[in-house]
Hints:
The protein is an all-alpha fold. The protein is 60% helix and 2% strand. The radius of gyration is 33 Å and the shape is rod-shaped.
Amino acid sequence: MLEWSKAFFNLQNKDVQHITYATITVNVVVLLYSIVLFSYALQIRASIGVFINMVTEKDGNNLSNFLVVVGLLCLPSNLLSVYLLYVALTSDISRNSQVSALMYSLPFIILGTICSMSIVCIMIISHVYSKHEALHDGIMEAMNNYSSNSEFKMSIDKLQLQFDCCGSKHYNEWYTIPWYDSNLIKNKEKNYQQSTPFSCCSKRSTFVCIHHGIESNSLPYRYSRDLNFSISPFGCTTAIQQKKKSIGWGVIGRILFVILLQFAAATGIRRIRQTHFKDDAISTKSKSWLPSFQKGKRKTNKDEKQSLVEGNSTDTESYQT
């Protein structure tokens, strides 16, 4: 039989009560933290999700949805844990078959949620490190419609201002896109060759933003491409991807914290149930940290020999009788 650990503890009545209170506290913390996860999901959607959704079809909801899934996984198992632990604290669960069955199954249910959360972590890593081709295509489509569609224009301007970026992968993508009013070219008011929208101006630059004739020197503004370049050099796809990686690892860190708490809860619940099914219900030695495939006390070679001797003695007495 498979045995997960061989740690022995002498548990007295107070010890069991302390473990029960501690396990209840852990479950309550997980429940409260689930609410924190829901709140953080809304923050992610507001800080990055809505901007991604401007140029893609709901791709900005993925990270927040992962957090919501983790919060929903925690709620039923931990609410049930708090209820069963309260019952265990106020009564003898060994006399209640339904509660006993739930207490036995609950650690396995919690371990199932831990496995599900681990899968969510893998999915998050896969998502944030993907190529984001849909995001690139959406940004390019909005850029190509910049001059003809006010909604696309507003979306691109907000995106570039929010993430301090320009274009999809590089600012020079704007050079081949007629993003400006063609009447300005006919009237020859300005030279719009090698130019970008004003929203491409970098927030980090301390110079006057020159977003027309970027590659050439400008005497009136004392502009030199090599000395006072003022356009953001980062593409929006790259900037958003880096932001998603940062947020993604923050989400994974929060999920790992929940997994640690769930692991502690499963350990405590298993220990509490074991103390209610021993001959000496509270004062006992117990043998496993987590749900074990072993049932009852494992027989050693010495125990087997002793049983064999006792069996032979019984047979001899029966024969003599």
